[in-house]
Design a protein that fits this description.
The complex is a heterodimer of chains A (about 475) and B (about 180).
Chain A (H helix, E strand, L loop, with lengths): L3 E2 L4 E5 L9 E7 L5 E8 L5 H4 L8 H4 L8 H15 L7 H33 L10 H6 L4 H22 L8 E2 L2 E2 L5 H31 L1 H4 L8 E6 L11 E5 L5 E6 L8 E4 L8 E4 L3 H4 L2 E2 L2 H7 L6 H13 L10 H21 L18 E8 L2 E9 L5 E7 L1 H4 L1 H16 L7 H13 L4 H4 L9 E2 L1 H6 L9
Parallel strand pairs in A: 7-12
Antiparallel strand pairs in A: 1-2, 2-3, 3-4, 5-6, 7-8, 8-9, 10-11, 13-14, 14-15
Helix pairs in contact in A: 4-6, 4-12, 6-7, 7-12, 10-12, 11-12, 14-15
Chain B lengths: L4 E6 L5 H7 L4 H8 L1 E2 L14 E7 L2 E3 H13 E7 L1 H5 L11 H11 L3 E2 L14 E6 L9 E3 L6 H12 L15
Parallel strand pairs in B: 1-2, 1-3, 3-5, 5-8
Antiparallel strand pairs in B: 4-7
Classes of the chains: A alpha+beta (about 475), B alpha/beta (about 180).
Bound molecules: iron/sulfur cluster.
Chain lengths: ~475, ~180
C-alpha cells in the first residue's frame, strides 16, 4: 500500500480494478487526516467505435460491433441486428428467427451471470471482503473443499450458456448468427437433444445459486442496506403487459418509490427521453432522463432495475423468487446496491426456465429464416444486455454505408450509480482511518463489482486525454500515479 | 518444486480473448495443477510478484499505459505471447488508424446525437493515459515470442499452446486451430 502526497492531499489509486470485465481505475484523494475528499472511478481506454464504423456496409455492423466486448458480444450483436432489421424493413422476424435469437440471448444471460457470480464475485461473498487477496479468486474457491463443488457448478453453468451461444450464433465469442432481417441457421435436433439432456441440471443449479445469493443478502441485510446504497431511478425494457423481457419491449422508467417517470415508450424515440452529459471534471458521459434534467435524472440499469421495474416475470419459479425479493422492501423498489447479486440470480433462473421452454418449441427447427421489406435510412435497436439497457442507433445511406452511429452501452448508464457507490464506501470505510489496508480498498471494488460493470463496453468511446502523443513520446511520459502493492 | 507462473493482461482488447481462455471450462482445474496465476484481471494480483514463465497479452497498444504494461510484461515473462488478432495486428480497434483521432473524440463528446454538453467541454485529467496516435500491434513495441491468431483464438488453441509450453513439448498446433476470425 503506497500513498503519495500531492498538492496538499494524499492520493490512493486502485489500478487496475480487478475481477471486473475490462479496464478501470479508482482514485481517492485524502487530506492529511485521511479524510476522503474525492473518490472516483475512471475508465481509462478510448476506442472510437462510433467514428470508425462510419463508411462500413450495414450488414457488417452486427459482426463488427461485438468486438466492443468479448463478455457480452451477443448483446451488441443482437442490438445491432435489431437496428439493421429495421433498416432492411425486416423487423417482423419469422418465428424461427426470433426464437433462435431469444435462445442465443438467454444463453448469454445464463453464461454472463454465472461468470459474474461464480468466477468474479463469489470469492468476496464466501471469504469476506478483506480476505487474503492470494486466495480471493475463483481458483481459491475451487481449491477450498467447502466450495469446490460450487466452483465446478459455476464453470459448468457458464459452459452450458456458451454452448447455447455456439449452437445459435456459430461461435462462443463473436458469432455471426443474427443477420439483418433474421438468422443464418436453425437449431438441429442433435443440438436440441444435447441441451435437453442437461437443462434440468442447469435449472437445479440456478435454484441453488439463487438461494445462495438470497440467503447471503437476507443474512447480511442490515450491513448491506447501507453498503454503497442510495435511492435512485430505474430504467428497463418491459413487455407491453409489463412482464420482464430482455429481448424486446418498450422503455419504462420508475423513481426510487416506484412511481412511473415514463412508461411504454417506443425506443425509436429514445433521444426525446435520454441524453448524456459531458462534465468537465469527469471523463465519462453521464446519461440522464431528460424530463428530470442532469442533476436528478440519472438512473440505474441491469438486474436490480429490471426486477424493480417489471410487473411480473413470465416463468413460474423466477416469478416466485421476484415476489420474495420485492417483499423485503414491501413491494417498493429495492435500492440496495448489493441486492444486484440476488436480482441477477433471479434472472439466471429465469433464463434457465426460458431456455427449457424454447428448447421444447418446434419452431426452432423451422427453415424460414429471413424476412425483409421496405428500406429505411435510420433505426434504433435496443436489448436488455446482462448489465442493462443497451442502445444502438444507426443511419445508413443509399450506398448501404453507415453514416451515423450512436451507442449508449449498459455500463455507461450505471456510471453515476457506480461513482456514488464508490464515494459512499470510501466515506464509510476509508475516511479518517489511520491505516488504509488492502482489505479496505477491496470494499470499494466489491461495490463496483455488484454492478457487474463491463468496462470493455464502456471504453467504446470514453476516456479523454489531455493531448495526443507519438509512440516514442509516450514511453517517457509517466502519469503521476501510485499502485497499491 | 514451485510451479511456473502465468500472467495475463488485456490492453486495447475487448476481453474476448480472456473469455476464450475461460472457455477451456473444467480444464482450468487441470491448468492450475500445472501453473500458478500471477498478475491477471481474473485475480487480485495487481503487480507482478516475481518472474513468470508465460505472459499472455490480449489487445494492442492504444495508449501510453498499454505500452507501460506491455513493457512490464516483457520484463517479467520468459515467454510472451500475443493472444488474438488485436495483440497480433491491432484488430478492430486499429480501424481508427486511418482516421484523425480528434474526429473520434468529437463524435464521442461533441456531435453525438445524445450528447448534452452546453459548455462544449472535452474533459481532461492526468488520471487518464495519453492516447497514442494509432493502435500498434504488440510486436511493434516489444519482442513477442509467439502469435496466436483468432478473434478470439479458440479455447482449444489456447489450451494446446499453453500445455505445450508448460510441459516443454514442441508447439505444433493443428491446422484447424489456426484461424483469424
Ligand atoms: S482479438 Fe477479438 S476477442 Fe481478442 S481482444 Fe481483440 S476483438 Fe476481442
Amino acid at each position: 500500500m503506497t500513498t503519495t502526497a500531492t498538492i496538499g492531499t494524499k492520493k490512493i489509486t486502485i489500478d487496475p480494478v480487478t475481477r471486473v470485465e475490462g479496464h478501470g481505475r479508482v482514485t481517492i484523494h485524502l487530506d492529511e487526516e485521511n479524510n476522503v475528499q474525492q473518490a472516483r472511478m475512471h475508465i481509462i481506454e478510448f476506442r472510437g467505435f462510433e467514428r470508425f464504423i462510419l463508411g462500413r456496409p450495414y450488414w457488417e455492423v452486427p459482426v463488427l460491433v461485438q468486438r466492443l466486448c468479448g463478455i457480452c458480444p451477443v448483446s451488441h450483436h443482437l442490438a445491432a441486428a435489431k437496428t439493421m432489421d429495421r433498416i432492411v424493413g425486416g423487423e417482423n422476424l419469422t418465428p424461427t428467427a426470433e426464437k433462435m435469437r431469444r435462445l442465443m440471448h438467454y444463453g448469454q444471460f445464463f453464461q454472463s451471470h454465472a461468470l459474474h457470480f461464480f468466477h468474479l464475485c463469489s470469492p468476496d461473498l464466501l471469504f469476506g471482503f478483506d480476505a487474503d487477496p492470494a486466495i480471493r479468486n475463483v481458483i481459491g474457491v475451487a481449491k477450498d473443499e467447502r466450495y469446490a463443488d460450487l466452483a465446478v457448478q459455476g464453470v459448468m453453468m457458464r459452459k452450458f450458456g456458451q454452448e447455447i451461444i455456439k449452437a445459435t450464433a456459430g461461435k462462443k465469442i463473436h458469432g455471426t448468427g443474427a443477420i439483418p432481417g433474421g438468422i443464418n441457421k436453425n437449431l438441429s435436433i442433435q443440438e436440441r437433444d444435447m441441451f435437453l439432456k442437461d437443462i434440468d441440471q442447469m435449472v437445479e443449479w440456478s435454484r441453488q445459486a439463487l438461494n445462495l445469493a438470497k440467503n447471503y443478502t437476507v443474512e447480511h441485510l442490515e450491513d448491506l442496506a447501507s453498503f454503497g446504497s442510495f435511492d435512485s431511478n430505474h430504467l428497463s425494457l418491459v413487455r407491453e403487459d409489463g412482464a420482464m423481457d430482455i429481448y424486446h419491449g418498450n422503455l419504462r422508467a420508475i423513481d426510487a418509490q416506484g412511481e412511473p417517470i415514463f412508461d411504454q415508450v417506443d425506443y425509436q424515440d429514445y433521444t426525446d427521453y435520454i441524453a448524456e452529459e459531458v462534465r468537465p471534471w469527469s471523463y465519462m458521459k453521464f446519461p440522464f432522463i431528460k424530463s428530470l434534467g442532469p442533476e436528478e435524472g440519472w438512473y440505474r440499469v441491469g438486474p436490480l432495475a429490471r426486477v424493480n421495474a417489471c410487473d411480473f416475470i413470465d416463468t413460474p419459479e423466477a416469478e416466485a423468487a421476484r415476489k420474495e425479493f420485492m417483499a423485503v422492501t414491501e413491494d417498493k423498489p429495492n435500492n440496495i446496491t448489493m441486492a444486484y447479486h440476488w436480482a441477477r440470480m433471479i434472472e439466471t433462473l429465469h433464463a434457465a426456465e426460458k431456455i427449457k421452454e424454447l428448447l421444447n418449441d418446434p419452431d426452432l427447427q423451422g427453415t424460414d429464416l429471413v424476412t425483409k421489406g421496405e428500406r429505411r435510412h435510420e433505426a434504433v435497436g435496443l436489448v436488455e444486455a446482462p448489465r442493462g439497457t443497451l442502445f444502438h442507433h444507426y443511419q445508413v445511406d443509399d450506398n448501404d454505408q453507415v453514416t451515423m452511429a450512436n451507442l449508449i452501452v449498459s455500463t455507461t448508464s450505471n456510471n453515476v450509480p457506480m461513482n456514488r457507490a464508490v464515494e459512499k464506501v470510501a466515506e464509510e470505510y476509508i475516511s479518517g482511518k489511520p491505516e488504509i489496508t488492502e482489505g479496505l480498498l477491496n470494499h470499494i471494488e466489491v461495490a463496483i463489482r455488484a454492478y457487474d460493470p463491463c468496462l470493455s463496453c464502456a471504453t467504446h468511446a470514453m476516456g479523454q486525454m489531455p493531448l495526443i502523443v507519438e509512440l516514442h513520446d509516450a514511453c517517457g511520459n509517466v502519469v503521476d500515479k501510485k499502485t497499491r502493492d | 518444486m514451485t510451479k511456473p507462473k502465468v500472467a495475463t493482461t488485456s490492453l486495447a482488447g475487448c476481453f474476448g480473448c480472456h473469455m476464450s481462455l475461460l472457455d477451456i471450462d473444467d480444464r482450468i482445474l487441470k491448468l492450475v495443477e500445472l501453473v500458478d496465476f500471477d498478475k491477471s484481471p481474473v485475480d487480485d494480483i495487481k503487480t507482478f510478484t516475481g518472474r513468470c514463465a508465460v505472459g499472455l497479452v490480449e489487445g494492442g497498444c492504444a495508449n501510453e499505459e498499454n505500452v507501460h504494461v506491455l513493457q512490464d510484461f516483457r520484463n517479467h515473462c520468459d515467454i510472451l505471447i500475443s493472444m488474438g488478432d488485436c495483440a497480433t495486428m491491432g484488430g478492430i480497434p486499429a480501424m481508427r488508424n486511418t482516421i484523425p483521432l480528434q474526429e473520434c473524440l468529437d463524435v464521442a463528446y461533441k456531435t453525438g446525437v445524445t450528447v448534452y454538453n452546453p459548455d462544449n467541454v472535452v474533459p481532461n485529467d492526468p488520471d487518464i493515459p495519453l492516447l497514442l496516435d494509432r493502435v500498434y500491434p504488440c510486436h511493434e513495441v516489444v519482442k513477442i515470442d509467439y502469435h496466436l491468431p483468432g478473434c478470439p483464438p479458440s479455447a482449444d488453441t489456447l489450451w494446446e499452446a499453453l500445455v505445450a509450453l508448460l510441459t516443454d513439448k514442441p508447439m505444433e498446433l493443428p491446422y484447424e486451430l489456426i484461424k483469424y476470425d
